[in-house]
Amino acid sequence: MGWRVVHVSQVDQLSLHLDNLRVYQGDLDVKVPLNDIFALVIEDLSCKLSTRLMVELSKNNILVLLCNQQYLPECIIQPVSGHYGQYKQMMKQLNWTDEMKNLMWQAIIRKKVHNQMQVMLKNLVELHRVEKMQDLKSYISPGDEHNIEGQAARIYFNSFFGHDYRRDNDDYVENAALNYGYSILHSAIARTIVAKGLIPGLGIHHIGHRNPHNLASDLIEPYRPIVDHFVIKKPPEGYLTKEYRIELINLLHAKIQVNNQSQTVIRSIELFINSLFDAFETGKSEKLKLPNIEKLSFHEL
User: Fold this and answer.
1) Which residues contact 11 (CB under 8 A, 6 or more apart)?
2) Helix, strand, or coil here: 146?
3) Can you tell me the distance from the alpha carbon of 222 to that of 285, in angstroms, rounded to the nearest whole number?
4) Per-residue model confidence (pLDDT) at position 301
């Protein structure tokens, strides 16, 4: 699996040269081996791409993100078939029971709240707020039928941005930064889901009728605090600069813990999705290899 995340801005053309991505920018002519690439993020609306390149990117299961005028991912290009045993994988997924889905969602939300607590501790939030989060975590039931996730989110975000803060308020530049970082993570998870032969629109908890990536919307939850911590520690200054966006993209290279072992976020996503099959087949949610950010470290450019 590739590891490079290629960010494209102000370039003339992208094309294929042998097994390499070829980037033209004025007199600059750069080649990057396709085998090294995990994702290609294109922010230049005038950039030309060859059809031959797009086909090879698809064959190599490389995530391609086309961004809009606000630099947010607008389009994801993914292969039609991403796994040699796709039918078998899909049939397994279709047989996942509601009972097991609820248990998996319980485990996912517990880990999300746990990681939110780690962000609060790292940023020296008042201890009584962290204790309230711990108390809420103990009440998370299968399927989170009482929406403890939402209750925890209010305490969590208000601890950093004040009681008037709302996630859907575009007046907060922090929301733009969070949305950008979340979009990158969501797209990386969606890419890996397709590569593993799963049905991306069939989620564990999310059932959005217009969401083609409900499963990615489920699996991103314990990863969101990674973006939160970065934005809290390094808030954007008025708007999202190119340099700041690149730092958000590079959160895919941040180091976290999975089963007490250090992994990059990219690698942890693959381990997490692989573990879904073990968890559903054994009926044990503890088989999930969930990300833990207690020892989170950011990738240095």
Assistant:
1) 23, 24, 25, 44, 47
2) coil
3) 15
4) 54
- Per DSSP, what are the bridge partners of residue 65? 41, 76
Which residue intervals of the chain are DSSP H helices? 51-59, 86-94, 98-122, 127-137, 148-161, 173-195, 214-219, 224-233, 242-249, 265-282
Query: N- to C-terminal Cα distance for the chain?
Result: 21
What are the b/e assignments for 69-102, b being 16+ CB within 10 Å?
eebbbeebbbbeebbeebeebeebbeebeeebbb
Tell if the pTM clears 0.85, that is, is over it. Answer: yes
List, in order of start, the domains of the chain with CATH numbers.
4-77 (3.100.10.20), 86-297 (1.20.120.920)
- Tens-digit pLDDT profile for residues 291-300: 999 999 997 6
37-49 pLDDT tens trace: 999 999 988 889 8
Pull the structure tokens for residue 157.
Answer: 């975000």
**What six digits make up the tokens of 199?**
């049905």
Residue linked to tokens 């790292």: 122
Tokens of 55: 């086909």
Q: Is 209 helix (H, G, I), strand (E, B) or coil?
A: coil
Cβ-based neighbours of 300, under 8 Å, separated by 6 or more: none
